[in-house]
């Protein structure tokens, strides 16, 4: 099998320069005073696994029936997350380790966008569980990033509320 751990860790550690070089100047040049990140629900399993690792809460509580993004298959999502968590238990304080085990390339890229925005003092509007998980990873890598994160709302997915709690963010909309 291919060692994807090192590939994802490399992606996580190199996501910041491209995000700053490409995404941030483009949004600032267009006159945007903030950036919003969101993602497709297909990466929601990664976000749920990260939430389980960070909070220590049970998989069924964070990735169960309330997880509407599981396309009618919340049990399948919960089982996938359970297997991932049982297979590996990275240190919750090790953002690169969490990204390597659970995050994937999209989560690493979104984490880089959060870091780049914060470095440029641009607020980031988090829209859902995936972007909030990416924001959490960015805060683990650079705690000052927290000051630039804004939660747009709290999704029905329990993992989202848990991650918002870990970040200490109150959503703008309920």
Which key terms come to mind for this protein?
174 residues; mainly alpha; three-stranded parallel sheet; 8 helices; globular; disordered N terminus
Describe this structure in words.
This protein has 174 residues and is mainly alpha-helical. It contains 8 helices and 3 strands. The chain has helices at residues 4-14, 16-29, 44-55, 59-62, 74-87, 95-119, 129-141, 158-167; strands at 35-37, 124-126, 149-151. The chain has a 3-stranded parallel β-sheet with strand order 1-2-3, with helices on one face. Helix 3 packs across helix 8 (158-167) and helix 6 (95-119) packs across helix 7 (129-141). Mean pLDDT is 77; it is low at 1-31 and 66-70.
Overview in brief:
This protein is mostly helical and about 170 residues long. Helix content is about 60%, strand content about 5%. Mean pLDDT is about 75; it is low at about 1-30 and about 65-70.
